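Chapter review: from sequence to fold.
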Amino acid sequence: METIMPNIANVLKDEIKRLARREIKLTITPLKVSNAALKKLVYEHKRRIAALEKENKGLTNLLSKIRGPVHGNAPKREEESYRITGRQVRSLRGRLGISQTQLAKLIGVSDNIVSIWENKSGRLRLRKPRIGKVLFDLKGMKRREVLEQIRQEKKGRTVSKRKKKSKKI
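The token string follows.
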């Protein structure tokens, strides 16, 4: 009888351990599943935040190129911070689809000046700040707007020439 009692005690201990493990496993399994889902969600959020930060940095750099530094000693006017190069003038003219003559008339300079600007390397030194402002404004305009402005100027000149001719007669 003595040998049977210790065996029953061992059997009971083993059964209690087995049931305890089973209960723990049933409790932990849903937690493991939800933990894995949360880790995946955190990973997705981190990836999205990194992409948004990269996009934000790019937009900030673009804004600082256009307007100057965002913080600190920023210029008072946007066109003062706009650095104009010959390559930018050529690119602007190409984007707008206008000739050197048309650009010169819009800006109020001679055709030769536009040609000189486009062939010059480095930053342009503009004597009149008004020219820089006009170039800055043209940069923000669309092709259709610029062509409409050219058409209006042509109409205005045609009318004035007709008036002058009729007055001479």
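Two observations follow directly from the output. The domain at 84-157 is CATH 1.10.260.40 (434 Repressor (Amino-terminal Domain)). The longest helix spans residues 4-67.
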